[in-house]
Amino acid sequence: MQGTLRGRDLLQPRSLADALKMLRNEGPLVPLAGCTDLYVSLNFGTLKATRFLDLWNLDALRGIELRGGALRIGALTTYTEIRRSATIRRRLPMLAAAAREIGGVQIQNRGTIGGNVANASPAGDTLPVLLAADAVVVLRSAAGVRRVPMTSFYTGYRQSVATPEELIVAFEIPPVRGRQWFRKVGTRAAQAIAKIVVAGVQDREPRLAMGSVGPVPLRLWQTERALGSGASLAEAQQTLQREIAPIDDLRSTAEYRRQVAANLVAQFWNSRSGTTPGR
Asked: Least enclosed by CB within 10 Å: which of 23, 59, 103, 191?
């Protein structure tokens, strides 16, 4: 049975400060912007929330810029803006590659990077990129601002350290040295939820992150250390198998994900002198 809009409230703040006050004084509220995930739940009749905060018109949450050498991406930046940005293609090409893989043109025009992170799906395409890039999540409430490393942001399946009074306002990403790498494995070339998604950085100390292999997207610290310390690829793949915890679901099986994850680690490690980031 499809959901209905009847009995649901939508608050429309005029500014970011207004939105933060509403979260503090009139909550609990569910923030919404592009609605590419929220409307799926509404359509399937599984959306339980009844009160929402519309962020779409808050330009203070948009923008891509360099600040003190770090790349800052506003939470309402869309995937289309990400893949078209010369700054991102130059500084963080694996994020541009991820943005190209998300849905179709309509989804890319509406979906936002902040929504992808807040949705907290372990299959979120941009999440391994942000993990591998050592991104920082900038959270803001009426009480102030705090910064949380992406590697510490998720606490469990679809759960994070963000409080009900906080909004994700931006992401800060330090310069990424080394060659960047991104791969997504799905049921088809486009408009598919990831069976596995991987992002990595080839440097003296490699970085590697993976989605759809556990309850949260994972930074593969142990596998990174194995690769960086001179372990054989086979040893690193064995370490990977201990580090991930995939499940059987509608899109794939745990066994398939384990095999593909090992293959992707091999592709990542063997690509040190190979093709350019992305496809």
From this structure: 59
